[in-house]
């Protein structure tokens, strides 16, 4: 049998930093970048990670370049950043596009298999239903993200201001929505 090799190529993205994950040692592990076309979870290469957390703030704009791996056998694309540049607000024409992209409050739900199978899917649906019931579904974006590297705490979600909640129970959802919105 022939092993399927991942296809590797370069990428460059300009977008708004929605959130980022920092290790217990203060190293930035991954970024959640939102562009007008799509949202991306991007792993940060070790060489980049140490200095970053001092500069990053959710809401800032970044130019991120690195390598993209297309794991055909998993039907999955992974991104790893080797260069991260903080952009001034009015830097490029692509930023003009981003600025017009309406920025909403955002909830991130981990869609990694541990979280998704241990209640993440239900959490996602309940969040939607709760926002709908409160009449604020158009003001809040619920997005899914790749593994947050906290699988043992599944299901995980990130509320606005980077507040992470682990082992989320269905009965917490209504309370969380009331707390944040
Ligand atoms: S699958 Fe959610 S943290 Fe890993």
Summarize the structure.
The protein is 24% helix and 39% strand.
Question: Can you offer a commentary on this structure?
Answer:
- With 181 residues, this protein is an alpha+beta fold.
- It has two domains: 7-94, OB fold (Dihydrolipoamide Acetyltransferase, E2P), CATH 2.40.50.140; 105-180, Glutaredoxin (3-Layer(aba) Sandwich).
- It is 24% helix and 39% strand.
- The protein contains four helices and nine strands; from the N terminus they run E-E-E-H-E-E-H-E-H-E-E-E-H.
- The longest helix has 21 residues, at 113-133.
- The relative contact order is 0.16.
- The model is unreliable at 1-5 and 90-102 (pLDDT under 50).
- The site of FE2/S2 (inorganic) cluster has 12 residues, from helix 3.
Say what the CATH topology of the largest domain is.
OB fold (Dihydrolipoamide Acetyltransferase, E2P)
Q: Please compute the radius of gyration using only Cα atoms.
A: 17 Å
What fraction of the residues are assigned to beta strands by DSSP? 35-45%
Shape type: globular
* CATH architecture name of the largest domain: Beta Barrel
Unreliable segments of 5+ consecutive residues: 1-5, 90-102
Structural class: alpha+beta
CATH structural class of the largest domain: Mainly Beta
Give, in spatial order, the strands making up the sheet with the most strands. 1-2-3-5-4
What is the N-to-C order of secondary-structure elements (H for helix, E for strand)? EEEHEEHEHEEEH
Report the end-to-end length measured between terminal Cα atoms: 54 Å
Question: Average pLDDT across residues?
Answer: 81
Give the tally of β-strands: 9
The percent of residues in helical segments reads: 10-25%
What is the fourth-level CATH superfamily of the largest domain?
Nucleic acid-binding proteins
Helical segment tally? 4
Give the biggest sheet.
Answer: 5 strands, mixed, barrel
Q: What bound compounds does this protein have?
A: FE2/S2 (inorganic) cluster
In total, how many domains does the architecture comprise? Answer: 2
